[in-house]
Design a protein that fits this description.
Helix content is 63%, strand content 6%. A five-stranded parallel sheet has the order 2-3-4-1-5, with helices on both faces. The protein has a three-stranded antiparallel sheet with strand order 6-8-7. It is mainly α and 698 residues long. The two termini are 27 Å apart.
């Protein structure tokens, strides 16, 4: 369930939400540098606008890069090992094979012509430099625009220092710094003298200017000017050691400006600011209430404090389907982190943050197979950075059960939402932290569900050898625990492994009794649906289409009863297979199309690839089938293992190609296939979904 390739051609630059002021000379310099060298690094103090400038430059240069402009945000990464995963996810890749994320990223970039923006490299300078060094050799069409407080120190790099905005326009027109203040504060040019003095105090640093402009609702322009003057004259600059060792005077000016904003906050607002800095990325009101309330901050106060911090430009808010989502600029978060540390609350808030996201993972796992499934997908993908931070906290905890529980609770996120590669990374670490115990009490349910989750992740990666090993571990552990849901989940894992290994009859002997029992699933709707899916799939692989049709209809009915969508789309895939086996290609096309529509709505690249393959087997127009085979190849390349390495699926794919070649000839086939191969993914999926029941696309 990943947004693996949507929008791939254009990249992933976010829309601008506020006006962009000035920087004409810098944009021209960046454009010239990018045209001449392959690594350009924007350097400068925090708050000077490097990220915004890089994004605007990328947007202006987009037409020169056929494969798009891609932004990779690195500020929230706490571990260098996460850098390849961040690149993999920002590029919306879906290769879930057992290759490393670095290998997948480098291979995918090898023949691309794109601009890669690596934003906020300063805390991962050596790792970013290593990656870019490799990229400059292996991907000749890729150019890199990095932002960092210091250069990457690579041969051929062209650093460009981003200066503050000019505070003196040298004439009657307002300077760029003054224009920014006027834009954000809503004041006119008649106030130009006071604005110019304010911007001069703030040395033209954009973030400092925006924070000062946010004070105007509570004081007039002259009062703001006078208070800023007094602040700088009285306090001067703080010690360089106060903020990550920065000694650039302009960085200290920003620190002073943020400190002034901090002083003008109420005590409750200051405490909320410090505590909110614990979030690795954006957050919702519920999370802020449960993590940050306590002592002088009551839960009922948090919403009002968030609004106050938004009004002061210390937080930013974005509307989502769940309501407002808040975020904090990195420089503002750093200040809050320092205060949280000084308050002695860093460990307490980290534990609260970890416990909240452990709860979120547990609840999502329990409620996944229900009517709120799409909402859970959107919520967990939005909270991805926070989930990572909580996992890292669990892994650092002395009790290994915490990391086992959380990685297992997130089974749906790894397995269904398309994060198998990252899931395996965390599952491997959690299980390594908790090796099998010796004599005495055996491992508990946390270890079982982590092992089981590792098993389902492994078979989606085509790693059936690892899956088989995990089957041997899960079965006896489930029996020892005596948990009906664990027992049935273990049977599902074994049955799926056997089916994918070409032993479908044996698989039915494992899963059919469990699927047919009154307590199927052991009280877990998700496990019940998974068992029914494997029963259907095994019948289908055996060519027993009548039994497969009955099982698929049962699965579909159960999905509708629970309001479940992800497995319902697989039920459509299985119904298409049974219809095709029973000689009804029109119904097969309809079911395949219905399943594909759900798969693509949920961004399930693997499910989409399977559905398109099913569609090609059912269509009667050879040229259009050849085009869809090309689209299918693009999808499977994203997955990483064509047809999951399953012999039956590979055989069906080859038979379809032979049928089309025999009908229209090799030249016509290659032309249509190439057209599909070169079709954009969104356009290709739309083409497949336009297929009517008769089997001929419109």
């Amino acid at each position: 369930m990943r947004e693996s390739v949507q929008g791939r051609q254009g990249g992933n630059l976010p829309d601008e939400t506020t006006s962009f002021v000035g920087r004409g000379a810098e944009l021209r310099a960046i454009a010239q540098a990018v045209s001449q060298v392959r690594l350009v690094t924007l350097t400068g103090v925090g708050g000077v606008g490097k990220t915004r400038l890089a994004q605007r430059a990328g947007a202006e240069l987009r037409d020169g890069f056929p494969d798009g402009v891609w932004l990779v945000g690195l500020a929230q990464l706490s571990e260098p090992a996460l850098l390849p995963l961040a690149l993999y996810e920002a590029l919306r890749l879906a290769d879930q094979s057992t290759r490393t994320a670095s290998e997948v990223v480098v291979d995918w970039l090898a023949d691309k012509r794109l601009l890669l923006i690596l934003d906020c490299c300063e805390h991962l300078t050596a790792d970013c430099a290593d990656f870019v060094r490799t990229l400059l050799v292996t991907a000749p069409g890729v150019r890199v625009l990095a932002t960092s407080r210091r250069p990457l120190a690579l041969r051929g790099e062209q650093p460009i220092v981003v200066p503050p905005l000019p505070v003196d326009a040298g004439g009657t027109q307002p300077s760029d710094a003054s224009l920014l203040f006027m834009e954000r504060a809503g004041v006119t040019r008649e106030d130009g003298t006071a604005v110019a003095e304010i911007c001069a105090h703030l040395e033209g640093i954009p973030l400092a200017i925006e924070l000062a402009a946010a004070r105007l609702p509570e004081m007039d322009l002259d009062a703001l000017r006078r208070r800023l003057h007094a602040r700088y004259e009285t306090l001067g600059h703080p010690s360089p050691g106060m903020w990550h060792g920065e000694s650039d005077p302009r960085h200290l000016t920003l620190r002073t400006a943020i400190g002034w904003s901090h002083e003008l906050c109420t005590p409750q607002e200051r405490l909320a600011w410090a505590r909110l800095s614990v979030f690795a990325d954006g957050f919702e009101l519920e999370a802020a209430e449960l993590v940050c309330a306590g002592g002088p901050l009551g839960s009922a106060q948090i919403g009002g404090l968030l609004s106050a911090l938004v009004d002061k430009s210390l937080l930013r808010s974005t509307k989502t389907r769940r309501g407002l989502r808040y975020s904090m600029l990195d420089t503002v978060r750093e200040y809050g982190e320092d205060w949280l540390r000084n308050l002695g609350e860093e460990r307490l808030l980290s534990e609260r943050h970890r416990d909240y996201y452990r709860w979120l993972a547990r609840t999502g796992g329990r409620q996944w197979a229900g009517p709120d499934q799409v909402a859970w997908y959107e919520r967990c993908t939005a909270e991805h950075a926070n989930l990572r931070a909580a996992l890292e906290s669990c892994l650092a905890d002395a009790d290994p059960r915490d990391s086992l529980e959380m990685t297992g609770s997130l089974w749906f996120f790894w397995f269904c939402c398309g994060f198998q590669r990252e899931g395996r990374h965390y599952l491997d670490r959690a299980l390594a932290k908790s090796p099998c115990p010796g004599p005495g009490p055996g491992p508990g349910p946390e270890r079982f569900w982590a092992l089981w989750t590792q098993g389902v992740v492994a078979f989606t990666q085509g790693d059936l050898e690892t899956t088989g090993r995990l089957v041997d571990l899960c079965n006896p552990l489930a029996d020892r625990l005596g948990d009906p849901a664990a027992v049935d989940a273990a049977r599902y894992l074994e049955g799926t492994w056997l089916t994918l290994s070409g032993r479908s009859a044996h698989a039915l002997g494992v899963v059919a009794p469990a699927a047919g029992s009154p307590g199927c699933g052991g009280g877990s709707p998700a496990v019940k649906l998974l068992l029914l899916s494997t029963v259907t799939f095994a019948h289908l692989r055996l060519g027993d289409f009548d039994r497969a049709a009955v099982a698929a209809a049962t699965l579909h009915e159960e999905c509708e009863r629970h309001g479940e969508q992800w497995m319902r789309s697989f039920a459509f895939y299985l119904l298409a297979g049974t219809a095709l086996g029973n000689g009804d290609p029109s119904s097969a096309v309809r079911h395949a199309r219905d399943g594909l529509a759900i798969k693509w709505r949920l961004h399930d690249i693997l499910g989409a690839a399977l559905s398109v393959d099913m569609l090609t087997s059912a269509m009667d127009d050879p040229e259009q089938t050849a085009r869809l085979l090309g689209i299918s190849d693009v999808l499977w390349r994203s997955v990483g293992v064509a047809q999951l390495g399953n012999l039956d699926l590979v055989t069906a794919r080859r038979a379809c190609e032979r049928r089309v070649r025999d009908t229209i000839g090799d030249l016509a086939y290659e032309a249509a296939f190439r057209k599909g191969l070169e079709t954009g993914i969104d356009e290709g999926i739309a083409y497949a979904l336009a297929t009517p029941e008769g089997g001929t696309p419109s």
